[in-house]
């Protein structure tokens, strides 16, 4: 057997190294997208990177074989050649997947990925070597082969460890180039070191075997196709990232406006370059009612039209974003407070113009909250928080308005958040108490009823006004369990008064609109009465006009059922809501309560006329009438002259806890 020497074409050797480095750099570019993606998109980036690196390593190997001038003709076994390519891609996929599987890059995980990747390169190399068909046999020197594999492991691990320095950078990076050079050096170094440690010997004849591929034609075409594949995947991925996936990631599909991700990028790159700037939070008023009545398709078309008007209103002076639902954000760089106010007025005027959508003439308004940079913040989060706080103020002040953030709003918002958190625990901690205000018959000089009112004894802030905590309870839905507790408390207390012969009157409780949702109010009231042993006519439910008119048919049905049970119903704050007099006779009500705003201004002729008409309406509909907010003897005389005898107010008694009310009963009975 003759020992053969091997000679190398230095230009092809350099070409093989260039292929390996190019494949590694392209794959690392694609892998940087893996860290910023999730789900199927993440797996797509990972597969693309593994395919580029695996096929690049494979191409380098066979280009390296062609660089080795063997004194015999070499052909390749088709199956083992294809298997070497498959092994290379699969192990690259597993290694790169391991390196990018954690949110934080961990050195041990990277080292494990490096070992897996170098193992894949070695496996591909030896399978590729076994695919060679020639009039010779290969004898491996174990020392050289071990050194070659160790060389691959060392440089691959060094290259993979650099991943933590550029993992989120999809552009050019010197660290990325260094990593690609180390990986390319490991592949080519391992290949040529392994060849150097291999002995080729021949016996002078070629044993018959399977059909063979010619080195100079078919293999060269295959390597060329793989190289073109690498370039196509890399170029296609860049194009996809720049034009398709980037738009999907940074733009809202419904309106075409930039989304939250686009907002973050805009603020990081463009917004804070100016001296001043304004951020507008825009929220549509009553948008939910349009969705509920006309459907989400009409709602989506309305949002598209709103987005168009906002974009036209800004007209290149800033950027419009959709945050989700009916919330939009406008960023106006280089904007003063005066200009922000003018822009807000123009936008509100434009948005409230009618919309013609699918033969529907729609009207919608918006509320705006404004924050200014750097006055209210020097980062995106602070400015958005300030604008959101100002938006709540605009909505609370009546909607279709704008509000500019100030520190008082911030204090108010922080207190509101604190109270909401504490309110969720208040019932379990027994922090609520009930106070009672008497209703007095001014002719008979007797108590004819009591109104139960809720108070919150906060462990730190003392007594919290109902004006402050009731809206929070309404908004969060906590008003339902609170009212449920109050019903049981009031019924039990009233029954106790009956047993002790203190007083024998009906006690009224204010009802929230939330109590009418779900249709279970009858069962709740009945349970409270049965548990306390109280007769139904000693309980009165007070509702407002807005509750009566909201879903009137369902509300009337529930109230009628309670009236049949014997529970009394009164209409509170009459004259200040939106009820129609044409529907008043349809609502099952025992009593009309004249709102205190009319009593306080009863010296005005117009208010006196309204009071007189309310009393007349109640009389004609066989309803009782109660005047709220009575504080002076002049008001009493006026009400008596107009035919109202039952009154409630500080003149007769303030809201009192149970122990004070007992003393009040004794004093007034005497």
UniProtKB/TrEMBL annotation:
MHYT domain mapped to chain residues: 8-201
GO cellular component, as recorded: membrane
Domain EAL: 416-669
Coiled coil: none
Gene3D superfamilies reported for this sequence: 3.30.70.270, EAL domain
CDD domains: EAL, GGDEF
Spans traversing the lipid bilayer: 6-32, 44-67, 79-96, 108-127, 142-161, 173-193, 217-240
Location of the GGDEF domain: 275-407
InterPro entries named in the record: Biofilm_reg_signaling, EAL_dom, EAL_sf, GGDEF_dom, MHYT_dom, Nucleotide_cyclase, Rev_trsase/Diguanyl_cyclase
UniProt cross-references to Pfam families, sorted A to Z: EAL (PF00563), GGDEF (PF00990), MHYT (PF03707)
UniProt protein name: Bifunctional diguanylate cyclase/phosphodiesterase
Organism placement in taxonomy: Bacteria, Bacillati, Bacillota, Bacilli, Bacillales
């Amino acid at each position: 057997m003759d020992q053969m020497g091997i000679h190398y074409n230095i230009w092809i050797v350099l070409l093989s190294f260039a292929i390996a480095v190019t494949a590694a750099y392209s794959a690392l570019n694609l892998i940087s997208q893996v860290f910023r993606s999730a789900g199927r998109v993440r797996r797509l980036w990972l597969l693309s990177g593994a395919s580029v690196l695996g096929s690049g390593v494979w191409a380098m190997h066979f280009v390296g074989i062609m660089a080795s001038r063997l004194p015999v003709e070499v052909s390749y076994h088709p199956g083992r050649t294809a298997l070497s390519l498959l092994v290379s891609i699969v192990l690259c996929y597993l290694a790169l997947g391991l390196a990018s599987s954690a949110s934080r890059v961990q050195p041990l995980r990277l080292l494990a990925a490096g070992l897996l990747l170098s193992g894949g390169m070695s496996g591909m190399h030896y399978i590729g070597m076994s695919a060679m068909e020639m009039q010779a046999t290969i004898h491996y020197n174990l020392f050289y082969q071990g050194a070659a594999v160790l060389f691959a492991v060392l440089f691959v691990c060094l290259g993979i460890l650099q991943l933590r320095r550029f993992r989120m950078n999809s552009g050019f990076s010197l660290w990325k180039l260094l990593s690609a050079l180390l990986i390319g050096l490991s592949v080519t170094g391992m290949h040529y070191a392994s060849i150097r440690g291999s002995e080729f010997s021949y016996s002078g004849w070629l044993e018959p075997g399977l059909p063979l591929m010619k080195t100079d034609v078919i293999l060269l075409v295959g390597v060329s196709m793989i190289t073109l594949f690498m370039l196509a995947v890399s170029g296609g991925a860049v194009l996809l990232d720049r034009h398709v996936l980037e738009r999907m990631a940074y733009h809202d599909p419904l309106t075409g406006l930039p989304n939250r991700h686009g907002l973050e990028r805009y603020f990081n790159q463009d917004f804070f370059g100016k001296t001043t700037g304004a951020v507008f939070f825009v929220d549509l008023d009553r948008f939910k009612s349009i969705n509920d009545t006309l459907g989400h398709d009409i709602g989506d078309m309305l949002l598209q039209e709103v987005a168009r008007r906002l974009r036209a209103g800004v007209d290149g002076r800033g950027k419009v974003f959709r945050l989700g639902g009916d919330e939009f954000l406008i960023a106006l760089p280089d904007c003063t407070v005066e200009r922000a106010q003018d822009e807000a007025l123009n936008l509100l005027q434009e948005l409230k113009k009618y919309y013609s959508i699918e033969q529907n003439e729609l009207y919608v308004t918006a509320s705006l909250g404004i924050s200014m940079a750097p006055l209210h913040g020097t980062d995106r989060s602070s400015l958005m928080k300030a604008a959101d706080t100002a938006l709540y103020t605009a909505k609370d002040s009546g909607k279709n308005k704008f509000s500019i953030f100030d520190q008082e709003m911030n204090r108010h918002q922080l207190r509101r958040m604190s109270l909401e958190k504490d309110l969720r625990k208040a019932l379990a901690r027994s922090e609520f108490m009930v106070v009672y205000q008497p209703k007095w018959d001014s002719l008979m000089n007797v108590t004819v009823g009591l109104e139960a009112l809720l108070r919150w004894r906060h462990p730190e802030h003392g007594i919290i006004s109902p004006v402050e905590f009731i809206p929070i309870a309404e908004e969060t839905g906590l008003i339902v369990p609170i009212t449920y507790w109050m019903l049981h408390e009031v019924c039990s207390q009233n029954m106790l008064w009956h047993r002790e012969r203190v007083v024998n009157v009906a006690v009224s409780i204010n009802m929230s609109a939330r109590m009418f949702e779900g249709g279970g109010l009858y069962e709740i009231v009945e349970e409270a009465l049965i548990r306390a042993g109280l007769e139904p006519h000693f309980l009165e439910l007070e509702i407002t006009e807005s509750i009566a008119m909201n879903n009137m048919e369902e509300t009337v049905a529930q109230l009628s059922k309670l009236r049949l049970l014997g529970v009394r119903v009164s209409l509170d704050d009459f004259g200040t809501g939106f009820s129609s007099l044409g529907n008043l006779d349809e609502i099952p009500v025992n009593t009309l309560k004249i709102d205190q705003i009319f009593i306080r201004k009863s010296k005005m002729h117009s208010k006196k006329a309204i009071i007189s008409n309310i009393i007349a309406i109640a009389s004609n509909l066989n309803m009782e009438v109660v005047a709220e907010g009575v504080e002076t003897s002049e008001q009493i005389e006026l009400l008596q002259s107009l035919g109202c005898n039952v009154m409630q107010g500080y003149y007769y008694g303030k809201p009192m806890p149970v122990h004070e009310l007992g003393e009040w009963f004794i004093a007034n009975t005497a």
